[in-house]
């Protein structure tokens, strides 16, 4: 081996020894018992990956022990509406959908079941073409529920007004888009609905349209209710009656975008209006205290004091020929109009 080769070999050996020595020293330093820092991954928390959910409530119960009542439920014509419940913005075209697919009678299933299980009768009414005049259905009824007030005709609204005047209990669910009809039906009681829908971006049940509402004043609708979930709510105000439920202060109205604690239910005497119908649906009936609200609604419907009044076109039950006229000369031989009795 030449002198140049021996020099290269010696250089390689020296470099190798130095490298191994540095690695060994580094290992000794690392392994000297120094506690290593713990890396916390705060951004990775699987337990918080999903938003908080509202717990489901218990069973639907009635406190009333009233005898059998007859309740007419108006669900409207299923062909007249979209299969999904729709939200309307101040009379504009349909722009948002919420609710669930299903027949209109299914949408009030929990209320219907509760009434029937407690000995009351339920009759469904669609419209006058399918079921005849509403006045006929209301003749023997004690209460009336409508989840589609915007589908009631003028004649049906008049029949419902006469029914309420006679003491029949009436519940109207005022979904967004039905404000005009609700205002017309509730005008005598000072209850009206406002155009637009409510939403809450701060606190909601997994969807900004699913808002929370709490009892406002003492009301038969809100006994033992703490919080309810409304999937598509409208504003319901009253000038004569009492507010029943209001939203959180961060709730906004679609037509103004203003945040406020809005009223979503009101009642006055035998009339109650709730600005949502989704709470009656099977999938929503047990959210929060919706089940308690439904039980209170059922009690409200069967605890009225309707008086039997003959309509303007109905004959009187009293036979005029059987009336005994007042005393006077020959009165016993005269008819009520004063003419002589002819045997």
**Mind telling me the CATH superfamily name of the domain at 70-302?**
Class I glutamine amidotransferase (GATase) domain
CATH architecture of the domain at 70-302: 3-Layer(aba) Sandwich
CATH class of the domain at 70-302: Alpha Beta
**Beta-strand content estimate:** 15-25%
Biggest sheet descriptor: 9 strands, mixed
Provide key terms for this protein:
343 residues, alpha/beta, Rossmann fold, two-stranded antiparallel sheet, 7 helices, globular
Task: Summarize this entry quickly.
By secondary structure, the chain is α/β, with parallel strands linked by helices. It has helices spanning 3-30, 109-117, 128-131, 134-138, 154-165, 179-185, 290-302, and strands spanning 70-74, 85-88, 94-98, 121-125, 143-146, 169-173, 191-194, 198-199, 211-215, 228-230, 235-238, 242-247, 252-253, 263-268, 271-274.
Secondary-structure topology with pairs:
Elements lengths: L2 H28 L39 E5 L10 E4 L5 E5 L10 H9 L3 E5 L2 H4 L2 H5 L4 E4 L7 H12 L3 E5 L5 H7 L5 E4 L3 E2 L11 E5 L12 E3 L4 E4 L3 E6 L4 E2 L9 E6 L2 E4 L15 H13 L41
Parallel strand pairs: 1-4, 1-5, 5-6, 6-15
Antiparallel strand pairs: 2-3, 7-11, 8-13, 9-10, 9-12, 12-14, 14-15
Describe this structure in words.
The protein is 23% helix and 19% strand. The chain has a domain at 70-302: Class I glutamine amidotransferase (GATase) domain (Rossmann fold, 3-Layer(aba) Sandwich), CATH 3.40.50.880. It is globular, with a radius of gyration of 36 Å. Strands 4-1-5-6-15-14-12-9-10 form a nine-stranded mixed β-sheet, sandwiched between helices. The chain has a two-stranded antiparallel ribbon with strand order 2-3. Strands 7-11 form a two-stranded antiparallel sheet. α2 (109-117) packs across α7 (290-302). It is of the alpha/beta class and 343 residues long.
């Amino acid at each position: 081996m030449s002198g140049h080769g021996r020099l290269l070999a010696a250089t390689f050996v020296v470099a190798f020894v130095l490298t191994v020595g540095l690695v060994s020293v580094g290992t000794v330093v690392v392994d000297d018992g120094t506690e290593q820092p713990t890396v916390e991954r705060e951004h990775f928390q699987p337990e918080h990956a999903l938003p908080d959910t509202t717990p489901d409530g218990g069973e639907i119960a009635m406190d009333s022990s009233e005898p059998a009542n007859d309740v007419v439920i108006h669900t409207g014509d299923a062909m007249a509406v979209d299969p999904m419940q729709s939200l309307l913005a101040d009379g504009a075209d349909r722009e948002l959908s919420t609710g669930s697919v299903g027949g209109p009678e299914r949408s009030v299933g929990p209320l219907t079941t509760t009434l029937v299980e407690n000995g009351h009768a339920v009759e469904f009414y669609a419209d006058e073409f399918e079921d005849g005049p509403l006045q006929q259905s209301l003749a023997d009824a004690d209460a009336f529920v409508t989840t589609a007030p915007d589908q009631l005709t003028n004649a049906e609204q008049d029949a419902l007004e006469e029914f309420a005047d006679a003491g029949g209990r009436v519940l109207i669910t005022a979904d967004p888009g039905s404000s005009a009809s609700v205002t017309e039906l509730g005008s005598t009681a000072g209850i009206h609905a406002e155009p637009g829908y409510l939403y809450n971006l701060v606190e909601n049940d997994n969807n900004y349209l699913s808002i929370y509402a709490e009892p406002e004043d003492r009301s038969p609708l809100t006994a033992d209710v703490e919080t309810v979930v409304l999937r598509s709510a409208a504003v319901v105000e009253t000038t004569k009656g009492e507010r029943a439920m209001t939203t959180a202060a961060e709730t906004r109205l679609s037509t103004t975008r203003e945040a406020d604690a809005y009223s979503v239910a009101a009642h006055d005497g035998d009339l109650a209006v709730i600005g949502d119908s989704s709470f009656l649906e099977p999938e929503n009936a047990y959210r929060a205290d919706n089940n308690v609200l439904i039980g209170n609604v059922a009690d409200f419907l069967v605890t009225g004091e309707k008086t039997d009044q003959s309509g303007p076109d109905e004959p009187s039950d009293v036979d005029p020929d059987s009336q005994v006229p007042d005393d006077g000369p020959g009165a016993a031989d005269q008819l009520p109009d004063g003419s002589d009795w002819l045997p």
